[in-house]
Input
Amino acid sequence: MAKFVKVRFRGFKNIASCVKYEYGEAKSGVPLGGLGTGSVVLGSDGSFSASTLRNNIRDRWNPRGSFFAIYTSSGGKSQCKVLGNYLYDPPLQELSYIFDPSLKSETRIQSLEYYGHYPMVDIKFEVEPVIVNMQA
Output
């Protein structure tokens, strides 16, 4: 369930009012882009969706195979985690031109905190041993 919270984000001196979602909780997200230029939506699961070109809302599209990922290596253990949505994105095996086909869907991030404060988004998630804070 969405929560309205007040947070001081890195790089800003004032407290921002924003909506907070957990992983995949919202069906949409904050549109990122300049006025009249189009936008890309960074969803509450970290995936890209509802993109537009030249601000034409009739022709929205979800860019397949576009994602953020993080690779960590610590104590002899390496892992790669992908931000993305199980419902809309193709399985990683279908993206064999990017990933090794043997990768399983466990490589997706399982939880995150999404803070939408238009025109920006802050996402926080953890991939042991790293805590990632992403701002767009």
The first strand starts at residue 3 and ends at 7. The beta strands are 3-7, 16-22, 30-32, 38-42, 48-53, 68-74, 77-83, 113-117, 120-127, 130-135. The two ends are 22 Å apart (CA to CA). Residues 3-135 form one domain.
